[in-house]
Each structure stands twice: as C-alpha cells, then as structure tokens.
Amino acid sequence: MLARLIASLVFATACAFAGTATAQDGRWYRAESANFIVYGDMSDQQVRNAAQSLEDFDLVLRALMRQAERPTETKLEVYLVRNIRGLRVVAPGMSDDVGGFYTAGNDMIAAFSRYDRDMGLDRRTILFHEYAHHFMLHYFPAAYPGWYVEGFAEYVSTVEIVRRRATIGRPSDNRFAWLDVPGYEDFEIEHLIAPERVTRPTNLFMQQYYAYSWFAASYLSNTTERLRGLERYVALLGEGGDPVESFEPAFGITVEQFGEELDEYRRGGGRSRLLHIDMPTEMAPITVTRLPRSANDLLLPLARLRTSSADISDEDAAEITQAAQAFINEPMARLVLARLAIRRGDNAGARGHLDALFSTQENDPEGRYLLAKMILDETEELSPDEARAGLVEARRHLVRSFREDPNYYPTLYLYSLTFAGEYEPMSDDQLEVLARALELAPQADHIRMLLARELIRSEEYDLAVATLRPVIYAPHGGDSAMYARWLFDAARAQEQPQGHWRDRDTPAAVNDGAD
C-alpha cells in the first residue's frame, strides 16, 4: 500500500511539472513503469500509452502462462522511433520492411520499434512480438522449437484490450496472407519443423516460415491434444532429440500428417478460439520525464554503441563526435565519446572522457565497467606480471560498479569472465556471481554459454544441460546455437567437449537478423 501511495505521489508530481518545459528540453520522453523503461521521440502521452500497453501485455502473458505478478529486477528498455530512419541510427543498413528488433548483448537488452503507420501492421503488434520473446526466455526457458518461439510471439501479439478486457487469438491478417502467395505449394512442412536444414533461405521462405509458425501455434492453441503433444515434444528436444525424429513420438502423428492437419485448418478459415482475460481496472504507475536536448542527438547513437560491435565509418564517427561535443559536460555525452574512442582504438581519449565523467559521478556503473573492460583488453599485450596487476585493477573498478548498481548485469558478467581463463574451474562463489548475471539477463546467450562451459569444467553436467536447453533450437541462433549444441552434447555425455565446435555437422539455425 505504501509503495502504491509513493508511486501515486511521484506520478502526481511529474504531472504537476509537465507543463514547465524550457528551451533545454528535448523531443524525447522517458516513461518508467514496474517492468519497462520506454523512450519515445513523440509526445509524452504517446510514450505513457506505450508503457501502459506494455504493462497490460505483460499482465496478459502472466495470466495466460499462470506466472505470478512481480516487478522485474532488470527492466526492459524500449526505444520507439518515428520511422525507419530512427532504426537505422541504431542499426545502419536496416531493411525498409523491418518494423523493429530485439537485442540481448554484452552491454544492453533492449527492443527497438517503429511507432509509425507505414508498416501495414499495428505498431503495438511489433512491440508485443518482441516482448513475447523476452518474456518467454525470462520466465519459461526451455527447448522450444524455433517455429513455436516465433509462432507464439505472433499468436499473442494480436491481443486487443478494450475496456480493460483482453482478447487473445485474433487472426494475423498479415501472416495469413502469406499462406496464399504464389509458391505456397513449394513450402515443405519439414522445413517448418527443421528450418536449419534449409541451406539458402529466400525472402519468400522466411515470410512463409513466420506465417506457418504463427498458423501452427494458433492451431495448437485450439487443439488440446496437440498442445499436450507440444509439451512432450519440448521434453524430447530438451533431451537432445532430433526435431523431425522426435515429432511422431511426441504428437502421435507424422510431420506430414501435421502438415495435412494445418492445410485442413487453413481451408476451414483458420479461425481460432478467442480467449478473454479481465484486466485490473487500476492503471500501472508510470513516471514520465522529458529528456534534455542532448538526447535528440545522442540517445540513439549511444544505443548503437551499446548494442553493436560493427565498425563505425569515419563519417559517422565525426558526426557522433560533433553532436556529443555540443553537450560535453553531460554524462551521456561523456559515455558516447568514451565508447566511441574505445571502438576507434583511442584508449587514452576514452580515459580522458571517463575521468571527466567520474569527476561528477564517481562510481557511474557503466563508466567503471567500460574502464575495466578497456584495462582487460590492454592486458593482452602486457607481460604476465603486468597483466596480473591490470586484472586486479579491472576487478577493483568492477566492484565499484557493482556497489553502485548490483543489477547491472554487464558488470557481473565481465567480473566472472576474469576468472574464466584460469587453469582451475571457477569456485562456487564465482559461479554464483555468473549465475546471478544470467538470472538478471536470461535472454543473453553469451552469459548462458559461459555459465554452461564453466559448469561443465566443474563437472556439474546436469546443471549445464538445464542451462543450455533454451538455446539449442533458438530461431536466430546461428553460430550461437551450434556452439550451444556442442556443449550440450558433451554435458549429456558427462564429459568435457572434444575437438572444435565448428566441426559439428549440424548446420546453423535460420537467422534473418531481425523480426
């Protein structure tokens, strides 16, 4: 009750000052709720509405999956941009038809979405699709097949909430249309079940793969017997079963018969049973603030530097530098310039910007993390004694970062990484730190892989198997899925992995880069 009262007072205070914008205020607003931090290059009300929609969707998923309601320790950052140009600031070269993408990397977990009406899709649908992935990995990590991961996200993303009542199962007109395009008859049902066996997926294949994934998930949701089969199927995949060979033992029908059932369901119109969930009448507590003018030019470039390791051209670097120099005394500008300098190999310049940052924010978590990361990179060129001293110094900065923000998962991961190269396996305490990083960021494959590898080194094979199950059939796994399967097979055999993971015969999973 006290927490709700405080949240209400904060909300009221924010509203009271909402009309006092100054010349220093920028276009971007920031809305923070129990589970999300939403940034939007739009009106404050639009950003508030987006945060409310996401909180409502979170409640829908919890009710649907019978998951207890509790605020997350790591809030998902969501960036809403006006058009494709906004997405391209973060991910240059993004295709015109991409509506949004989700990333879970070393330094950031975030969703980016166009909030325009140019996509032919409801703008909330894109957001909901991405959050469904995030939610599933956070609360229900298991060996789900890639087609169900994508299909479930599509199935729930069309939810409608009217007068605080949610309706789930409305058809996706966009996906349904792709089932009838020319070339439909060339889509093989086995390629839905095992897309990694498609060596050169075309754009048509990818569109039909997503459409079929949605359609299959919709069909399962309306067929109790098949839904139970899915549970058995996930269990078999979790034990290392082949996606095709495990299908009939789990579902009681062959893959071909499943395709025939889908065709029959399609000819019948593919209408799913609608599910209704009554929502709480009380709206989520949301605090909206207006970001300074510097965010206009720096918020998305900073997100780019946090989410991508790709090279930055001289032209882009000069543009980002010029924008940051205009706001040189602001922490955001210092972080942008420090990250850019590190990316460009200018460690001395990065140190200067970080020192300036620490003069006003002594233990800034991101700043201390960046300094530690830079020191660790430099130790690779040092003598053993100098490298050991650098390692100790880096750990000291990471401890300071942790004390300032115990939930900043990049710090916990990097701290754990400093022990991964040791001759002896990690100690129990060190494994606990790494496990905590994964608890905060279960969507981050790199953390999951490191924890699994260290568990195997410690001969904790069963724990390693459980850790790896959610990623061995990841729909966008690529090399990550191949490496995970290499570790998984070794852990199931109760032995240390042999050879090199790239020597596996299993091809990488389908990866089109974005949803």
Describe the structure.
The strands form two sheets. Strands 4-5-3-2-1-9 form a six-stranded mixed sheet, sandwiched between helices. It has a three-stranded antiparallel sheet with strand order 6-7-8. The two termini are 40 Å apart. The protein is 55% helix and 9% strand. The protein has 515 residues and is of the alpha+beta class.
Poorly predicted runs of 5 or more residues: 1-23, 506-514
Total of helices: 22
Widest sheet: strand order?
4-5-3-2-1-9
| Share of β-strand residues | 5-15%
Distance between the ends: 40 Å
Helix content: 55-70%
The best one-word shape is globular
How large, in whole angstroms, is the Cα Rg?
24 Å
Describe this structure in a few short sentences:
The chain has 22 helices and nine strands. The protein is an alpha+beta fold and 515 residues long. The protein has a domain at 461-515.
